[in-house]
Design brief:
Blueprint (H helix, E strand, L loop, with lengths): L2 H14 L7 H16 L3 H11 L6 H9 L6 H33 L5 H23 L2 H12 L4 H6 L14 H4 L13 H13 L1 H14 L2 H9 L6
Helix pairs in contact: 1-7, 2-4, 5-6, 5-7, 10-11
């Protein structure tokens, strides 16, 4: 079994099993124990290799960490940062949900533009919370820490950077500062409809929402919604 396959086997073991201490020495020791148990390659096997290839610029632990585990960053530091960010993200979204629910309860049963906007914000944040909670666990933290620490995956990770950060769309003040309904682009509609909707959305929000609903129902809904949402991420 080649180097990359053995590393892949250890990564699976590392993520699925509890390793309380993620400091370099502990991870290297765990790796060596796994190699001995799984592939019958004990510490002496790796020490011989180390002596053959080492240029005296690093010690044995650093060599295993860099060459066989493939880490160019401190795994433990990356893990701590990822865990903190993950836990904080869940807390922020939960606080936003509580805040929006309170605003909705104040409005009561009153059906208004403001109420519908808050319901949209609530649904959106509930979706964000579900995604954040799914990633808020030990295995996810360790898996991401491994990827971020690995020089082997550095290039791949650069291409996989998310274009949007969910938290940008979950800012606490978004329901007050961002008039999302006014951002809908009707360039695919007729000139008459575009002019009508533009005037309504600036002068009569309630009537604008009614006209928007009628517009969608009266047209080929699938294609029209696709056309409109193409330029409107929040839809």
């Amino acid at each position: 079994m080649n180097y990359l396959k053995k590393r892949k086997e250890y990564r699976k073991h590392f993520i699925e099993n509890e390793l309380i201490n993620l400091e370099k020495e502990s991870v290297v020791e765990d790796f060596l124990e796994f190699m001995k148990k799984t592939f019958n390659q004990d510490k002496d096997y790796y020490r011989i290799e180390f002596k053959e290839h080492n240029n005296d610029e690093e010690n044995f632990v650093d060599y295993i960490y860099r060459v066989h585990l493939g880490f160019s960053k401190d795994l433990n530091n990356e893990y701590k940062k990822i865990r903190f960010k993950s836990e904080e993200k869940v807390k922020k979204i939960e606080n936003q949900i509580i805040r929006v629910i309170k605003k909705i309860s104040i409005l009561g049963e009153k059906k208004s533009y403001e109420g519908k906007k808050l319901e949209f914000i609530l649904d959106f944040n509930l979706g964000l919370l579900k995604k954040a909670e799914e990633k808020n666990n030990e295995e996810e933290w360790k898996n991401e820490a491994w990827s971020r620490s690995s020089w082997l995956e550095k290039i791949t990770n650069w291409f996989m950077v998310e274009l949007f950060d969910d938290m940008e769309f979950s800012a606490p003040e978004q329901d007050e500062l961002y008039d999302w309904k006014h951002e809908i682009n009707f360039q695919y509609a007729s000139n008459l409809t575009s002019k009508k909707m533009f005037e309504l959305k600036n002068n009569d929000k309630a009537e604008y929402l009614k006209e928007l609903e009628q517009y969608i129902k009266a047209n080929e809904i699938t294609q029209e919604v696709i056309n409109i949402t193409r330029d409107n991420f929040f839809l």
